Amino acid sequence: MSVAVIGAGAFGTALAITLGRQGPVTLWGRDVAGMQAERQNPRRLPDVHFPDDLTVSTQLETALAADILLMAVPMQALAGFVSSHDLSGKTVVACCKGIDLNTGFGPAKILETAQHAAVLTGPSFAADIARGLPTALTLACSQDAVARDLQAQLSTPTLRLYRSADVIGAELGGALKNVIAIGCGAVMGAGLGHSARAALMTRGFAEMQRVAGAYGAQADTLMGLSGLGDLTLTCTSDQSRNYQLGLALGAGRAFDASVTVEGAATAQALRRVAADRKLDLPICGTVADLVDGHVDIKGAMDLLLGRPLKEE
């Protein structure tokens, strides 16, 4: 079956590179003329050269003709893309993490017009995947036969995929950990220490479980790669863009507005979810306020530490 990656950012390019080492794959993006000529993505993944079976295309219709589409566009652009293109009859795998601000939906719900929809998520950095470093991800799909086919098609010697039928849990784990990562970055950027980060990660994970439970996700899904695994990676590494944004906020530094940080929009969406579903999400709400500029790092710390004492 033919495979195409839609979106030539860092993660989309990395997936195309690792899959292109196993067989033909097409990578589509809007500004890929330089990538075609240089056979690399110099901005996002410098010094990682494209395999011969990776075709870089500017023709979207050519890419959309593939049997399997890996959607690596930013989360907030996914709904617009889907509404503008006919994906019926396709097997589509969402490779973005977040909650759509306008609808409150995760990627799987947005892709329901496709014949088969799945979510690829878990602890991974694009540079690791592109360089062939060992990585394990969750492939979530409600249809077992489709999940097995995709698992076989998309796994490589260095990219190991684990199946899950809990699509909601997998996509929420991938989305919510980005919000907590911003908070952890802010803690470290402000010099509040490793102990404070550990506390924020742990209590943030409790909020992730709270949201997942409200949406009917399975509790053990959040204990896996798409939840705890992704949370651990994203909250502790400078490679994470969400963590980098938090570092800048905590240190009072400017952050490159052109960089896509999915957790910023997800934090805003979670603020609405908390109000609509009457969920207690103090960390997620404080991160949203921090990103919006409604509080500074001292105000955020005072809000969280000043809450009434309670049982864990």
UniProtKB/TrEMBL annotation:
Keyword Lipid metabolism: yes
Top EC class for this record: oxidoreductase
Cited NCBIfam families: PRK00094.1-2 (NF000940), PRK00094.1-4 (NF000942)
One Pfam family hit: NAD_Gly3P_dh_C
HAMAP family xref list: NAD_Glyc3P_dehydrog
InterPro entries per record: 6-PGluconate_DH-like_C_sf, 6PGD_dom2, G3P_DH_NAD-dep, G3P_DH_NAD-dep_C, G3P_DH_NAD-dep_N, NAD(P)-bd_dom_sf
Record key words, sorted: Cytoplasm, Lipid biosynthesis, Lipid metabolism, NAD, NADP, Nucleotide-binding, Oxidoreductase, Phospholipid biosynthesis, Phospholipid metabolism
Catalytic activities: sn-glycerol 3-phosphate + NADP(+) = dihydroxyacetone phosphate + NADPH + H(+); sn-glycerol 3-phosphate + NAD(+) = dihydroxyacetone phosphate + NADH + H(+)
Pathway entry: Membrane lipid metabolism; glycerophospholipid metabolism
Listed name of the protein: Glycerol-3-phosphate dehydrogenase [NAD(P)+]
A GO molecular-function annotation: glycerol-3-phosphate dehydrogenase [NAD(P)+] activity
Similarity remark: Belongs to the NAD-dependent glycerol-3-phosphate dehydrogenase family.
Subcellular location: Cytoplasm
Glycerol-3-phosphate dehydrogenase NAD-dependent C-terminal domain residues: 166-301
